[in-house]
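DATA SHEET
Item: assembly model
Revision: 1
Owner: S.N.
Input lines:
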Amino acid sequence: AQSVTQLGSHVSVSEGALVLLRCNYSSSVPPYLFWYVQYPNQGLQLLLKYTTGATLVKGINGFEAEFKKSETSFHLTKPSAHMSDAAEYFCAVSTNFGNEKLTFGTGTRLTIIP
Amino acid sequence: KAGVTQTPRYLIKTRGQQVTLSCSPISGHRSVSWYQQTPGQGLQFLFEYFSETQRNKGNFPGRFSGRQFSNSRSEMNVSTLELGDSALYLCASSQNPGQGHGYTFGSGTRLTVV
C-alpha cells in the first residue's frame, strides 16, 4: 500500500520568495509521483509528474520537484512566488503494479503575502 | 482537445434520494476514476474503470456504484443519500495509468445533501 505525507497544511511566503512544499511518500514498489494544484471551486490541475528517468522534473508555472529515493521525498519548489500561486497543492502517489489509483496527501494551502 | 467534462456542476438533493453524476473523459482515454473530496477526509478514491470493467474500488459502502460505457463515458450513482455524502466528486481520465500517464481531472460536481 502507498501513502503520502505533506508536512505543513498551511504555508505562507512573501511574493518573490522561494516556495517549498514538502512531500514524503511510502511505497513498497517503484512509485509514480504527482503534484496537483487546486484553485477554489475547481478541479485538480497537474503541475508535474515523475515516472522514470530524470529525477528533477520541471512542470508548469515555473514549478519543479526532485525525486529522492533515499529520502522517499518529492518536494515541490518554485524560485520566486507569484500572487497567482495562491492555491491548495496536493502530492499523490500511484504505481504500475496493478493498483494504479492515486493516493493523495492531505494538501498544503499556499498563501502569498504581498 | 476537450478536457474532462463533468455534469452537473452543482446538485442539491434530499436525504434518502439517489443521484447520478456523469463524466465524459478526454477522447482516447480509456481509464476513468472517481474521487470524493471533503474537508474532513480529503481526497478519497472511489473506483476506477478501464474499458468498461471496474478494476479498482475504494473503501466506500455499496450505496456508491459506477459504470463505464463503450464510449468511455462514466456515471457514478449514490443511492439512499446521507448528509455525509455532501462533497465535491471529481472524475479523472487517463490514457493508461499503469504506464505512468497522468490523470486529467474534471472541474467536479458539488453535491449538497440536505
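QC remark: The longest strand of chain A covers residues 87-94.
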